[in-house]
């Protein structure tokens, strides 16, 4: 089953998910996690949460008939409250060029000791996941929700970008799926962090409000774009002018084409 139906997204990718206050993408993250837990014999997922506590994740999982506590108790899911582990550096490290900043270089930076702790937790979790698979080919899942908050609480852009590149490298090494949410404040003027995220993403899932505003029947729309790291033979993309509209219900989103009420999935 695809990572996030009705979009034909494969596993083992870096999926950048962007949203805004008028159309939050919580439903994307929670449906992806629910799909991963239901479709894998030995699911393994770690959630790096910067904005929401475990109580909300449990509540939303229960709407998909998932007892998240059971997965936490078994070790199938690890929940990391990022703000409980990190503090922004007192002195900013500047906004210099980090084009060569990969996993190794990030780990050597003294300005990111807290983020390094988070990265090492992910690495250890993925190493255990590979060992627990007992030879089966399954992709672990890593969710970062949301990266924007790290910059908002005071981490310099270069540190956030280095952390993201290092996290990507760790996930690539373990063949894990990485989902990253980024809040867009000015849709018509992409910020520098978004530009850097697009450079390393496989695909970009864009959750947008309706131009006419939210209605009772439509909550927003979703488009799918290729990232700079997408393979030459990519999946079917969904441009903005053909974006799928969605309606949020008590059990999750319903998708349908513009101008119709026929549910896609």
Strand content: 15-25%
Q: Any idea what the shape is?
A: globular
Please identify the oligomeric state.
single chain
List low-confidence stretches: 91-104, 107-111
Structural class: alpha/beta
Corresponding CATH architecture of the domain at 14-86 and 111-208: 3-Layer(aba) Sandwich
Can you say what the CATH homologous superfamily of the domain at 14-86 and 111-208 is? Answer: P-loop containing nucleotide triphosphate hydrolases
Top CATH class of the domain at 14-86 and 111-208: Alpha Beta
Query: Strand order across the biggest sheet?
Result: 3-2-4-5-1-6-7-8-9
Secondary structure: number of strands: 9
Termini, distance in Å? 13 Å
Largest sheet: 9 strands, mixed
Binned, the helix content reads 25-40%
One letter per element, helices H and strands E, the order comes to EHEHHEHHEHHEHEEEE
CATH topology of the domain at 14-86 and 111-208: Rossmann fold
Protein name: Elongator complex protein 6
GO biological process, one term: tRNA wobble uridine modification
InterPro entries: ELP6 (IPR018627), P-loop_NTPase (IPR027417)
Pathway: tRNA modification; 5-methoxycarbonylmethyl-2-thiouridine-tRNA biosynthesis
